[in-house]
Write a structure and sequence with these properties.
Among the domains are: 74-238, Rossmann fold (3-Layer(aba) Sandwich); 369-472, Roll (Luciferase, domain 3); 478-608, ANL, C-terminal domain (GMP Synthetase, Chain A, domain 3, 2-Layer Sandwich), CATH 3.30.300.30. 35% of the residues lie in helices and 24% in strands. α6 (140-149) packs across α7 and α9 packs across α11 (269-282). By secondary structure, the chain is an alpha/beta fold. The termini are far apart.
């Protein structure tokens, strides 16, 4: 009998060891699957309530539970859950009574990272209005485009953007879009200042009847994303999706006692939906910074006792490239959540700043599929297994980058790559506001079977034998630089207005030691006209954000196109900007000279050695 006990005891000891060898991620898989199912079930239960339960209602519950708990810390200011609730109610009443906004209409916000962004969002939610989150870097025609695409009735901004507003104000008045400053006074004739009225308004709770007609499918946010159409597209975020995305923090183990650092722009889904939405969902506190600063990052983390950081890959690279300090590991950060971090940056970050759990994820603002790397495996953007794949129903299909299209077999079906996710009632693709064709272009039909339809992410991913997912590249006419998506066709249209340019092809090229790809343009000059580097510099600086400006120019006699008249970019991307590889004339955007200057080996060396800031 003792022998039997010995055998049983031995097996009990061996089972965990064997499990770790053959199924090293089993426990993590089960825990994450349980969290996912629980979060999904909670969202399902919320949507079935009458009236349906939204993120606003989750926030209001937290106000009742801990009204005096800090929600937002900004510089020397602190705002509690109760204060944000009261200020959002005051704004809601002013928007109804003075501005005239009605349930179901849209207001656009053109703001920097300030606490007002949050109470404006919640105030609009309280009266059943959607909020369009406008990138504060855009100007002129791009700004007008985003306002019209989401059919905004009102634009809320501050005098900080006086010049940009006054530039388009006549057009806004013609189109019936009202503009208001969230300030005490207005420096612009025809633009009213609202802050005084807001402060005098009642802060009592706004009746639920003001938003009683909303459903889980009602739009609540418009997040603008660059795409192959050139101009920003308004991705529709409905109330159901907002609840699902805001649940990501709970999936990653964030809890009410955490303090989250948000230095990313609030017009991005990473900051607003995931970070701030996540804080509202779990009842945590977040620290808002107006702009990311590598030199202030860890000082802020120590000052506010940050425990969770929201990142993009470029931000982490800046931190790794900052001067080393003795107190690099002196912080309380335990979790980092974000996307776009390269393997070498990931390894250096952990080596230098100490161990913390990094939750690298993959997802698109408008997409119906996402992954989270909950294991900490360096380089992966997620992990999947049999059950997860059954729930998400995604496929990796072959893609021809040069032809910019999915590869199909002789039956017209896609070959088994490019990440696509099946569009169903459970995983819908809501699409974009405005032109329906933009939405249709993201849908692939007859992928695996005749009649099926999938969302085309436009991203190439790879899956290994353990189920880990790795990001490979972005296809189409968009590249990412400094944490921003850049639409090549939009940049092309701006460059083409110069009198000496006949034709232009914009693309992104990789730079050693940098995240993403930087802008480069192949240009064919008009016959008889010369390249004017100074004029091009002035035009670029005046017409587009710095992150979108092509840093390199390549002069070409001809620009190749495909049989379907699409510009060829693949070879140009591969050849890059090295004068030893490219025989065509090359130019570099030199801010010190305020001109595009001839490319030299010295410039290449300075970029490679990171002596030249890009």
């Amino acid at each position: 009998m003792p022998d039997v006990y010995t055998v049983v005891l031995g097996l009990l000891i061996l089972l965990p060891l064997l499990g770790n060898i053959f199924f090293p991620y089993l426990w993590l898989d089960l825990v994450f699957l349980f969290r996912t199912i629980r979060t999904g079930y909670r969202c399902y239960q919320y949507s079935k309530r009458n009236p349906s339960f939204a993120l606003l209602d989750v926030f209001l519950d937290k106000v009742q539970k801990h009204p005096e708990k800090p929600l937002v810390l900004f510089r020397e200011e602190s705002y509690s859950y109760r204060q944000i609730d009261q200020r959002s109610s005051q704004l809601a009443r002013v928007l109804q009574s003075r501005v005239g906004l009605k349930e179901g209409e849209t207001a656009a916000v053109f703001l920097e990272n300030v606490p007002a962004y949050l109470w404006v969002w919640l105030g609009l939610e309280k009266i059943g209005c959607a909020m369009a989150c406008v990138n504060y870097n855009i100007r002129s025609n791009s700004l007008l485009h985003v306002l019209s695409s989401c059919q905004a009735k009102v634009l809320l901004t501050t005098p900080d953007f006086q010049a940009a507003i006054e530039d388009i104000l006549p057009t806004l008045k013609t189109e019936g879009i009202k503009v208001f400053y969230l300030s005490e006074d207005s420096p612009t004739k025809g633009v009213e200042a609202l802050l005084g009225h807001i402060k005098c308004s009642s802060d009592e709770p706004v009746p639920v009847s003001c938003r009683s007609n909303l459903t889980p499918k009602s739009p609540c946010l418009y997040i603008f994303t660059s795409g192959t159409t050139g101009l920003p597209k308004a991705a529709i975020i409905n109330r159901r999706k907002l609840l699902l995305v805001s649940g990501m923090y709970r999936l990653c183990g964030v809890c009410p006692k955490d303090i989250v650092y948000v230095p990313l722009p609030m017009y991005h889904s990473a900051a607003l939906l995931i970070a701030i939405g996540g804080c509202l969902e779990v009842g945590a506190t977040f620290v808002l910074r107006s702009k990311f600063s590598a030199s202030c990052f860890w000082d802020d983390c120590r000052r506010y006792r940050i425990t969770v950081i929201q990142y993009v890959g470029e931000m982490m690279r800046y931190l790794c490239n900052s001067p080393k300090k003795d107190n690099d590991r002196d912080h309380n950060v335990r979790i980092a959540i974000g996307n776009g971090m390269r393997v070498e940056v990931w390894k250096e970050f952990l080596r230098r700043f100490g161990f913390l759990h990094i939750y690298e994820f993959y997802g698109a603002t408008e997409g119906n599929v996402g992954f989270i790397n909950y294991t900490g495996k360096v380089g992966a953007v997620g992990k999947t297994n049999y059950l997860h794949k059954k729930l998400t129903m995604f496929q990796l299909i072959k893609y021809d980058v040069d032809q910019d299209e999915a590869v199909r077999d002789e039956k017209g079906l896609c070959e088994t790559g490019l990440l696509v996710a099946k569009i169903t009632e459970v995983t819908p693709f809501v699409g974009y506001a405005g032109d329906r064709q933009k939405t249709e272009k993201k849908v692939l039909r007859d992928v695996l079977n005749k009649g099926d339809c999938y969302f085309n992410t436009g991203d190439l991913l790879m899956q290994d034998h353990e189920g880990f997912i790795y990001f490979q590249d972005r296809v189409g006419d968009t590249f990412r630089w400094k944490g921003e998506n850049v639409a090549t066709t939009e940049v092309e249209s701006i460059l083409a207005t110069l009198n000496f340019i006949q034709e232009v092809n914009v693309y992104g090229v990789p730079v050693p030691g940098h995240e993403g790809k930087i802008g480069m343009a192949a240009v064919r000059l008009k016959e008889g006209l010369a390249f004017d580097g100074k004029k091009l510099y002035e035009h670029v600086k005046a017409s587009m954000p710095a992150y979108a400006a092509p840093r390199f120019i390549r002069l070409r006699d001809t620009l190749e196109i495909t049989g379907t008249f699409k510009q060829c970019k693949g070879q140009l991307v591969r050849e890059g900007f090295h004068p030893g590889v490219v025989s065509d004339p090359l130019y570099f955007l030199d801010d010190s000279e305020k001109c595009y200057v001839p490319m030299t080996q010295q410039i290449v060396d300075a970029i490679t050695e990171k002596k030249l800031k890009l």
